[in-house]
Amino acid sequence: MYVRSIYATGDPAELDGVAEALRTDGRALLSAQRGFRGMGLFADRELGKLLVGSWWEDEASRQASYENLSKRRAEMMAPFAQTVTVDNWEAAVARRAEELGPDAGFRLVHMDVEPADIDLLVDTFRDTSLPKVQKVPGLAGISLLIDRDGGRAAAGALYADRDALVASRGAVAAVRGEAAAKARATTRSLEEFEVVLATAVPHA
């Protein structure tokens, strides 16, 4: 599967209205596109950050949807978004285990890795990190997205509630450090968000 992520920052006071529009109208627009497989919407209301992830069957569907919805997406995000960054990814691993509650949390890690080491990172994540992280209480889903040409990766983890997200930090940090050393990856950023919406995606 393939993923498009849209990362927007702006005035926190304008975030709620745009998040609700994306959760309702935005989801409906995406659902009508060919090849759509799921959506995640995540917010940092304190700092003013929105992250939208959409999942697609193939690259052609992802690209077509971006072009089809470009104008409408800009209109919906305009009241909030002062900066917008769009990234395209390949989903190397995707696991969704259980339903999420109203207080669900999301942790996102961006990594840099040499393109030649991308497969090593994927193997390390799937074979070493995933079995350990799946034992962490409250984990509700996890994914690894990669950009082979750009030498980048993003690992996202969903937690059933905020308490589980907070409690997981130490254990997951140890797994992350072990994996980074083994796969020769460098952590670029570490962020946590509130889950506004997360629809299920199949295993990859």
TrEMBL record:
ABM domain ranges (all copies): 1-64
Pfam families registered for this protein in UniProt: ABM
Keywords: Monooxygenase, Oxidoreductase
Signal peptide: none
InterPro entries cross-referenced by the UniProt entry: ABM_dom, Dimeric_a/b-barrel
GO molecular function: monooxygenase activity
Protein name (Swiss-Prot/TrEMBL): Heme-degrading monooxygenase HmoA
Organism the protein comes from: Streptomyces avidinii
Taxonomic classification: Bacteria, Bacillati, Actinomycetota, Actinomycetes, Kitasatosporales
